[in-house]
Design brief:
The complex is a heterodimer. By secondary structure, chain A is an all-beta fold. Chain A has no helices and eleven strands. In chain A, strand 7 and strand 8 form a beta hairpin. Chain B has no helices and eleven strands. Classes of the chains: A mainly beta, B mainly beta.
């Protein structure tokens, strides 16, 4: 039973470029959340995808966009990269329990993609 | 806005002693509070979680308490061991189902 897998593991980009990060959720999970973790900080919520739609979004600019595919995998795209975008990007999957107080199962994280912008 | 505050940022305890990490949250509608452990260079891993319908939960040496009135929750690790050294994150799920993380506590277990 594979856990959450992310690719690539490391990436170096130049300021102004665009990047695409990929995530495959844990088997049985249908929801994918993306987080940005700067060095020495906690994960910051970027957005969440469910049923191929962006369900929730954090305080990130429109340069950050995403997509979810029918097989529940997801991509995170960042345009016009800034030096400050350098961070560990974590994907976390869960499954939607239902409506009400316990909507999501606990998050399972991937190992992340370390993005360096020079 | 939504916020999770975590204290202390760094904690050093003697091996065998207890460690306590405290968090507060701002969204009164939050009802799910997970704790994650992140070792250097590794992914955050869920170690324990609690929902708002209980006040305390224990799993071997780890326990979490929740005070909804005061909007704070705590992680307690007893009989600490060297492998407990890591960064610990508290988190709260807000009314929009976003899981918001604290800034983390770096726990050092001293020999």
């Amino acid at each position: 039973d594979a856990g959450v897998t992310q690719s690539p593991t490391h990436l170096i980009k130049t300021r102004g470029q665009q990047v695409t990060l990929r995530c495959s959720p844990k088997s049985g999970h249908d929801t994918v959340s993306w987080y940005q973790q700067a060095l020495g900080q906690g994960p910051q919520f970027i957005f969440q995808y469910y049923e191929e739609e962006e369900r929730q979004r954090g305080n990130f600019p429109d340069r950050f966009s995403g997509h979810q595919f029918p097989n529940y995998s997801s991509e995170l795209n960042v345009n016009a990269l800034l030096l400050g975008d350098s961070a560990l990007y974590l994907c976390a999957s869960s499954f939607m329990i239902g409506t009400g107080e316990q909507d999501n199962s606990p998050l399972h994280f991937g190992n992340g993609t370390r993005l360096t912008v020079t | 806005g939504e916020n999770v505050e975590q204290h202390p940022s760094t904690l050093s305890v003697q091996e065998g002693d207890s460690a306590v990490i405290k968090c507060t949250y701002s969204d009164s509608a939050s009802n799910y509070f997970p704790w994650y452990k992140q070792e250097l260079g590794k992914r955050p891993q869920l170690i324990i979680d609690i929902r708002s319908n209980v006040g305390e939960k224990k799993d071997q040496r780890i326990a979490v308490t929740l005070n909804k009135t005061a909007k704070h929750f705590s992680l307690h690790i007893t009989e600490t061991q060297p492998e407990d050294s890591a960064v610990y994150f508290c988190a709260a799920e807000n009314r929009d189902d976003k899981i918001i993380f604290g800034k983390g506590t770096r726990l050092h277990i001293l020999p």
